[in-house]
Design a protein that fits this description.
Layout (H helix, E strand, L loop, with lengths): L4 H5 L3 H10 L8 E8 L7 H11 E7 L4 E6 L4 E12 L6 E6 L10 E9 L2 E8 L2 E10 L3 H31 L2 E3 L5 H7 L5 H4 L1 E2 H10 L34 E6 L2 E6 L6 E4 L8 E4 L13 H5 L6 E3 L7 H14 L16 E6 L2 E8 L7 E7 L1 E3 H8 L4 H11 L1
Antiparallel strand pairs: 1-2, 1-8, 2-3, 3-4, 4-5, 5-6, 6-7, 7-8, 9-11, 10-12, 11-12, 13-14, 15-19, 16-17, 17-18
Helix pairs in contact: 9-11
Length: 407
């Protein structure tokens, strides 16, 4: 009796074995045969799995004259994986069947042995053995596959033309669209390294920031510090005892596919203290930077890349609790050549603008009616040489102590 190929998917393994046992071996097939994989016979998932498998394995092409076959794989029907075809006893019941032997013709399928018997005109039921153990079933139906093969190739080409650009677009979106800062569970670590958002517009690429003190090592201050430690930045070890990649006061964010770094409040409000001369230094936050002085000129650091050798003097006209923020922001603003005015941040309600005329601090507050009032405080920049005579009468440590007591 004829069998519908899909009807075989609904049969249980016992029913397939019974059908195979009562069927004759039939003649050795010749020509193209459409394949149907039956990995889980009788299961609810069998039709779906068979449909997916048909995209990868389309069937077999027999050469009865030379007693060989080639499997047709991939959506393009590539002929590969050769097997010898002969008549022989079945491993199931010892009766005659058609044996497909891969042991002498294939490296990847040398442990595979298939057995075929004719269950209907031009329709064969097969049993798959791996290393002598039954692993699955399949069916073959001799038919002209030219039209179906052309249809499968067309579908494969369309899938590639649509799928590859879509995959590239998804990968690019995953790479460049995320805007993720590095986060920290500890509130103290967040103060020292947490993001305030400045990396988006003013951040340096991490690789460039790490390369600067190496490329311009001869321009660093000769004070014994290594890399950015020469400018007073403080490094500490992580919980595993390894030196952190970034010093205290530097934040990091992945933006537009680039890891960017910039300074946060911790660059000025963290310092190291020793409990005893023989004890290691410990980082304390909230204190003023012991070795970092924002208003000191750094001509050696800037001449390597053409930055102006200028430094800001203390901000006048502000209360003590705002000075440190303004000084830190002014120092950060001087890291960029003067251009169009930009907001470099100085705290809630306050911001610095950098223009052709210099740096100015604005303090916005509501006047009760109309537009908010903006108080302007100039932050003068003067050459380092002009500060020399004034600094003769000013002790930096005493000045820092007065400012922190004012806070």
């Amino acid at each position: 009796m004829p069998y519908d190929m899909n009807e075989l998917l609904r049969m249980s393994p016992a029913e397939l074995d019974a059908l195979f046992a009562k069927s004759p071996p039939g003649p050795i097939p010749n020509g193209e045969a459409k394949g149907l994989a039956i990995p889980f016979p009788g299961g609810a998932s069998a039709p779906g799995i068979a449909k997916i498998a048909s995209r990868l394995w389309q069937g077999k092409t027999f050469d009865a004259e030379h007693k060989t076959l080639r499997n047709r794989i991939t959506p393009f029907g590539v002929k590969a994986i050769v097997a010898e075809v002969r008549e022989g006893p079945s491993l199931m019941d010892g009766k005659p069947c058609i044996v497909l032997d891969y042991s002498e013709t294939s490296i990847v399928a040398k442990d595979v042995r298939d057995e075929l018997r004719l269950i209907a005109p031009d329709t064969y039921l097969g049993r798959v053995y791996w290393d002598g153990k039954l692993t699955g079933y399949f069916a073959l139906q001799l038919r002209d596959m030219r039209l179906e093969r052309s249809r499968n190739r067309y579908r494969a080409v369309v899938a590639i033309l649509v799928g590859v650009p879509l995959l590239i677009a998804i990968m690019l979106a995953m790479r460049f669209l995320p805007d993720r800062p590095v986060t920290y569970a500890s509130i103290e670590d967040h103060f020292k390294y947490g993001s305030t958002g400045g990396e988006r517009n003013a951040g340096f690429p991490l690789w460039a920031w790490k390369a600067l003190p190496v490329v311009f090592a001869d321009k660093l201050p000769k004070n014994g510090g290594v890399g950015y430690e020469a400018f007073g930045l403080v490094y500490e070890n992580d919980e595993h005892g390894r030196r952190r990649e970034l010093p205290v006061g530097m934040m990091q964010r992945r933006n537009l596919g680039i890891d960017r770094v910039f300074v946060n409040c911790g660059v000025c409000h963290a310092t190291t203290v020793r409990e005893a001369p023989d004890k290691p230094s410990k980082v304390y936050v909230g204190l003023g930077g012991r070795a970092l002085h924002c208003r000191r000129p750094r001509p050696r650091h800037r001449e390597g890349i053409g930055w102006p050798t200028q430094s800001a003097r203390p901000v006048s006209g502000l209360s003590g609790r705002h000075r440190a923020h303004a000084r830190a922001a002014a120092h950060a603003a001087r890291s960029f050549p003067p251009a169009a005015p930009r907001d470099v941040g100085a705290g809630t309600g306050r911001h610095l603008e950098l223009g052709e005329s210099g740096i100015e601090l604005y303090h916005s507050r509501s006047s009760g009616r109309g537009a908010p009032r903006r108080d302007r405080f100039p932050v003068d920049l003067e050459p380092a040489q002009a500060q020399t005579s004034r600094r003769r009468h000013t002790d930096d440590a005493a000045l820092d102590g007065q400012q922190h007591r004012g806070q």
